[in-house]
Write a structure and sequence with these properties.
InterPro entries: HTH_MarR-typ, Tscrpt_reg_MarR-type_CS, WH-like_DNA-bd_sf, WH_DNA-bd_sf. It holds the Pfam family MarR. GO terms for molecular function: DNA binding; DNA-binding transcription factor activity. This is MarR family transcriptional regulator. The chain has 144 residues and is mostly helical. The protein has one domain: Winged helix-like DNA-binding domain superfamily/Winged helix DNA-binding domain (Arc Repressor Mutant, subunit A, Orthogonal Bundle), CATH 1.10.10. 62% of the residues lie in helices and 12% in strands. It contains six helices and three strands, in the order ααβααββαα. Strands 1-3-2 form a three-stranded antiparallel sheet. Helix 2 crosses helix 5. The two termini are 29 Å apart.
């Protein structure tokens, strides 16, 4: 059977996710938490809706992940001045430490995954994947 796109992209995603979780399990992280930590490292202080969009997660899933992260002391939520219903999510000192561990694991696995590709091909692959993600968004700019 000739390799096809959907199988290869699903296999790459599944294998990468397993490796990330295996390496970060010792750090006490669970599914969903590494990508939220990674996102918050660059976008600290955003609301839950922004996290859901930035991490390509359903809002209900983000709510569950954030509850676990708050319980573990990785994040804190603070009401936005003037709108107590709107909460901003911030990394705690422990969360920043775990985010850095996550970043190191991602970098290591990225290097493993891209082994044998020169810098030009790596940039091209990322550009192609960006186009694939854009193509899969609906007319409103959201993943279905």
């Amino acid at each position: 059977m000739e390799p096809n796109f959907h199988y290869q992209i699903m296999a790459a995603h599944t294998d990468l996710q397993k490796k990330v979780l295996n390496r970060l399990r010792e750090a006490g992280l669970t599914a969903g938490q590494p990508k939220v930590l990674d996102y918050l490292q660059e976008h600290n202080g955003v609301n839950q809706k922004a996290i859901a969009a930035g991490c390509h997660m359903e809002p209900a899933s983000v709510s569950s992940v954030l509850a676990g992260m708050e319980h573990a002391g990785l994040i804190c939520r603070q009401a936005e001045p003037g709108d107590r219903r709107s909460l901003r999510v911030y990394l705690t000192a422990l969360g920043e430490e775990k985010a850095e561990q996550t970043c190191q694991v991602f970098a290591s696995l990225e290097e493993q995954a891209l082994r044998g590709l020169d810098e030009s091909r790596r940039r091209e692959l990322v550009a192609l994947l960006v186009q694939v993600v854009e193509n899969l968004k609906d007319e409103k700019g959201e993943a279905e």
